[in-house]
Batch of 3 targets.
Target 1
Amino acid sequence: MKTMIKNMLTATGAGLIAMAIILPASAQRMRHRPPMGGGTTFHQPVPHPQPPRPAPHPQPHPQPAPHPVPHPVPPPPPPHPYPYHPYPYHPPVVINNFWGVHPYAWHPYYPYNWGYYWHPIGWFTATLATTAVIVAVVDSSTSQKTDYYYDGGVFYSKTDGGYVAVAAPVGAEIKSLPQGYTTVAVDKKTYYYYGGTFFQSKGDSYKVVKAPEGAVVKNLPQGAQEVDVKDSKLLEYQGTYYQPIMQNGEDAYEVVKVE
């Protein structure tokens, strides 16, 4: 009996000693154990002091942009010494009457341009294209021969420093008609009109002829001048007189006879 009691006391003492050793360790582990259900540890971060925010700088109010000061426009450059020779002036001719086939119908005159290669009378150029050809014309009254230069429907005469566009000389012959010509029929005869000039077929060439009376054309070139005849206005171009008419609802001009 005594032995049994002694053994029980010994076992109880050993258990108390073990508990004294285990409980502090468990308590130490419990301090570092995270809470149930996850999450962070119980240690809260120590807040660091924040520096004071700088005071906002006042923003300047936008100023309206100043109005630009207009710069003076420079004067245009002086013209070329010879870009264009003025169209020769013809003194007014007194005309008492005129006759035409179509009724007179006045409309404004607007000079027409036949394209890049066409130039009005008086236009000057220092050089001609390589396609220019020499056309010799003999005056029937004096038998004097004059050389002209022809290119693109325009006749030129040689002058100081270059060439100047002139009226097509009557009697001059060319091998082909310029691009943009129109066909005109008068008294069952066919004429070809281009740039204020009338041509007529002659064999394998085309000859410059006088404007036939009664011929109707749609356009007149630069250089035509208005002439007052009674209560009407005619247009004179290189000695030929045209009356304004209407043909098929369009403005046109008819070569008329004057006296």
Target 2
Amino acid sequence: MSGNVIYRGPIAKEPQTLNLPVNGAHTPGLIVVENGVQFSAAVAADATKKLWILSNRRFMGQDVQTAYVSGETAVAYELLPGEIYQARMAAGTYTKGQELTVDANGRLAAAVAGNTILAYCDQAGTFTVGQLADVRIADKATAA
């Protein structure tokens, strides 16, 4: 389900945001980390850290498919349990409720034993690399 926004809900509240430059041409929906100076694409080792998801700058007419230019100030949402986002996926077939972790490129992928569970797939389907899918943020736990 591709839509025109990254944050999907709950609609009763607005998520926390942070604005920092990106260190590459990153697309909204990518999972990122920040170091106080810039956003970088998250890697698997970052799964236990505080993570963010890049949003599109709706107020400037940026859609969810348009990448930020390296050095450009981006908007990112703080990932909190229970919130629903459109996130960039690793290629694969996913089931509703499947446990997801962050891969080496800031995308979500199927979690295997020992991975930190970041989210659950909220939309079953087969996705190509970088395709957006609805996901529900989890209380971080380790996959069994």
Target 3
Amino acid sequence: MIEFKKAQLTNLSDINALIEGSRSVWNYPEEYAKASLHLITMDEKTLNSEICYEIRNPELVGFLSFEKREDEVFLENLWIKKSTLKQGIGAATSKFIDQLANENGWSKIQVFPDPPAEGFYLKCGYINTGNKFPSRIQGRPTFTLFEKAY
């Protein structure tokens, strides 16, 4: 059974290992993967300042975090363990996100998915806004803002 639990600082190294392994599914060039790793690595400050969840089944199979910026909510991280893809964890997580949005009165959630993950977000009801932003790593992918209204 898939459970969503508040992320624990004691699991930080496991969370970061999961993130790095999950990202490898997209086969980014090694140079980019290394240069951008610091942008997705979690630290104590992030776990304490963002809304972070471990996804368990019963072992750690995913990580999810949100950042609130004034009246906006951003889905900052959604990582599913590579070996557990296509097993319903993403769909269950999407339902959990919808539940959180409704419980917290969020009017919309915004996300900048990695280009290979855009199809997943479309399936989950997010809309491609058409607003594009360059990668923070020079010469790398352009990211598009997606959002879902509640």
